[in-house]
Amino acid sequence: MRFVKGHGTENDFVILPDPDGGLELPGPLVAVICDRRAGIGADGVLRVVPAKLSPEVAAQADEAEWFMDYRNADGSVAEMCGNGVRVFARYLAEAGLVDGDEFSVATRAGVRRVRLEPGGDVTVEMGAPRVLGESRTTVAGREYGGLRVDMGNPHLACVIGDPVAGLDLTRQPAFDPLVFPQGVNIELLNAVGPRRVVMRVFERGSGETRSCGTGAVASAAAAAHLAGESTGSWAVEVLGGTVTVILDERTSYLSGPAVLVASGELAL
Ligand SMILES: N[C@@H](CCC[C@H](N)C(=O)O)C(=O)O
């Protein structure tokens, strides 16, 4: 099985081309591929499959030729991945599977429009973040309040007063399973300047990652909400770099680097 490896601000993915739609991806196989010792190692898998061959997104096939079938490192399926769709776009362009610098990608959360920027960044229109209310998490015995944000996938974005650098995110933070029956991606962030935050994230299905695109937009939306703002450009510093989030009245945009670093043959 042919694979390509890529990342967006060090949120890394194994890309699996599946032009005929015949590739089965049971959860245990995804988990082995993503294992950093027994496999290639990644935060998730991006299967590249024609939308028209994928019943769950066939309705998007008029707008988007390719479906990003995203799986977390533990093999679970997720609706959306902001960095993943940027890396997916880079792959489609480098593989010659799309024309031009702007095109659409089908995802479980709906069609996402992407643009390859001249300087090497990839921008994706992420849709409007939906701030749904409050909830709480406990990290290493300490409780934090945050805002529930729907980005197509579920987030709890907690703006905290302290620097996030010292937080212990080696274990699953506690959350309310009644509020998040499908699990949740948990962001902790603190402000370090005007519309500039530092974020760490514990992703559903992948653990702590070095970046999360949907999490960055959720974090910017939560910080803006608390500041009484609904528009503006936010810099979100993550362990793997910095991404830019633009919020406007209608939608949001996520920009940052997306690179392919290796390719090969999977011997699984
Ligand atoms: N890293 C991603 C999010 C991937 C999915 C997430 N773990 C979930 O289960 O919802 C991003 O860049 O958005």
TrEMBL record:
<feature type="binding site">
    <location>
        <position position="185"/>
    </location>
    <ligand>
        <name>substrate</name>
    </ligand>
</feature>
<feature type="binding site">
    <location>
        <begin position="213"/>
        <end position="214"/>
    </location>
    <ligand>
        <name>substrate</name>
    </ligand>
</feature>
<feature type="active site" description="Proton donor">
    <location>
        <position position="81"/>
    </location>
</feature>
<feature type="binding site">
    <location>
        <position position="153"/>
    </location>
    <ligand>
        <name>substrate</name>
    </ligand>
</feature>
<dbReference type="Pfam" id="PF01678">
    <property type="entry name" value="DAP_epimerase"/>
</dbReference>
<dbReference type="GO" id="GO:0008837">
    <property type="term" value="F:diaminopimelate epimerase activity"/>
</dbReference>
<feature type="binding site">
    <location>
        <position position="72"/>
    </location>
    <ligand>
        <name>substrate</name>
    </ligand>
</feature>
<feature type="site" description="Could be important to modulate the pK values of the two catalytic cysteine residues">
    <location>
        <position position="155"/>
    </location>
</feature>
<protein>
    <recommendedName>
        <fullName>Diaminopimelate epimerase</fullName>
        <ecNumber>5.1.1.7</ecNumber>
    </recommendedName>
</protein>
<feature type="binding site">
    <location>
        <begin position="203"/>
        <end position="204"/>
    </location>
    <ligand>
        <name>substrate</name>
    </ligand>
</feature>
<dbReference type="InterPro" id="IPR001653">
    <property type="entry name" value="DAP_epimerase_DapF"/>
</dbReference>
<feature type="active site" description="Proton acceptor">
    <location>
        <position position="212"/>
    </location>
</feature>
<comment type="pathway">
    <text>Amino-acid biosynthesis; L-lysine biosynthesis via DAP pathway; DL-2,6-diaminopimelate from LL-2,6-diaminopimelate: step 1/1.</text>
</comment>
<keyword id="KW-0028">Amino-acid biosynthesis</keyword>
<keyword id="KW-0413">Isomerase</keyword>
<comment type="subunit">
    <text>Homodimer.</text>
</comment>
<feature type="active site">
    <location>
        <position position="81"/>
    </location>
</feature>
<comment type="function">
    <text>Catalyzes the stereoinversion of LL-2,6-diaminopimelate (L,L-DAP) to meso-diaminopimelate (meso-DAP), a precursor of L-lysine and an essential component of the bacterial peptidoglycan.</text>
</comment>
<comment type="similarity">
    <text>Belongs to the diaminopimelate epimerase family.</text>
</comment>
<feature type="binding site">
    <location>
        <position position="11"/>
    </location>
    <ligand>
        <name>substrate</name>
    </ligand>
</feature>
<keyword id="KW-0457">Lysine biosynthesis</keyword>
<feature type="binding site">
    <location>
        <begin position="82"/>
        <end position="83"/>
    </location>
    <ligand>
        <name>substrate</name>
    </ligand>
</feature>
<feature type="site" description="Could be important to modulate the pK values of the two catalytic cysteine residues">
    <location>
        <position position="203"/>
    </location>
</feature>
<dbReference type="InterPro" id="IPR018510">
    <property type="entry name" value="DAP_epimerase_AS"/>
</dbReference>
<keyword id="KW-0963">Cytoplasm</keyword>
